[in-house]
Amino acid sequence: CSDKTGTLTKNKLSLAEPYTVAGVDPEDLMLTACLAASRKKKGMDAIDKAFLKSLKFYPRAKGVLSKYKVIDFHPFDPVSKKVTAVVESPQGERIICVKGAPLFVLKTVEEDHPIPDEVDQAYKNKVAEFATRGFRSLGVARKRGEGSWEILGIMPCSDPPRHDTARTVNEAKSLGLSIKMLTGDAVGIARETSRQFGLGTNIYNAERLGLGGGGDMPGSEVYDFVEAADGFAEVFPQHKYNVVEILQQRGYLVAMTGDGV
């Protein structure tokens, strides 16, 4: 079993052209995303680095970023799948900035107020389109003062495969190893990445494993399902543990590689 990001891929992200909800300036999307990023060298992950590196293409956002005061910062949480920052603007306005898995960010806004169908659908379609092109998407939203939550848009990032991944995968296969990819990314991205590596594309949403009673399969079927799958997407850390446990109970000798360890 292998993680994807940083194990099969380089974890060197580059940003593509953002998708913004009607009426939103890309500069605002970029500013909000960078406010929801750690600017301390120690706490900076690959996503934060990619955003701060791309600031040069957004001069207005770059010019004002340092004028915002960070009041509270919650780094990426693998369960809520988002980063949250509470900041104060140069004018003294309090703003909550969020970036993370697009559907989790959308849910944050939906819990505050209903989103018009056309906005909701266009956003979800864009997430699906980016995924089929192999892009990892990050949703961005904010709440200004006492106002409502606003969904701003999506920033697509690409994470290229490591130069030796395909060769390593082939070598492992020739030794009789079966490789399953476990990733927190969306199913579409996972399938496209898997295809690039020469791995199978029978990748499923980890929801189907039924943790917390969410699945629709009896126990023995879940075991067969895990055995036959090439990997799982949208996983939480607990899913990784469960997949390994199920395979061990089926008599397999299982290794886990990547930071999912």
UniProtKB/TrEMBL annotation:
Family of this protein: Belongs to the cation transport ATPase (P-type) (TC 3.A.3) family. Type IIIA subfamily.
Membrane topology qualifier: Multi-pass membrane protein
Organism encoding this protein: Funneliformis mosseae (Endomycorrhizal fungus)
Location in or out of the cell: Membrane
PROSITE patterns found in the cross-reference section: ATPASE_E1_E2
The encoding gene: ha3
UniProt protein name: P-type H(+)-exporting transporter
EC number, UniProt record: 7.1.2.1
Keywords for the protein's UniProt record, in alphabetical order: ATP-binding, Membrane, Nucleotide-binding, Translocase, Transmembrane, Transmembrane helix
A GO CC term assigned to this protein in UniProt: membrane
Top-rank taxon: Eukaryota
Phylogenetic classification of the source organism: Eukaryota, Fungi, Fungi incertae sedis, Mucoromycota, Glomeromycotina
Principal location class: membrane
MF terms (GO), sorted A to Z: ATP binding; ATP hydrolysis activity; P-type proton-exporting transporter activity
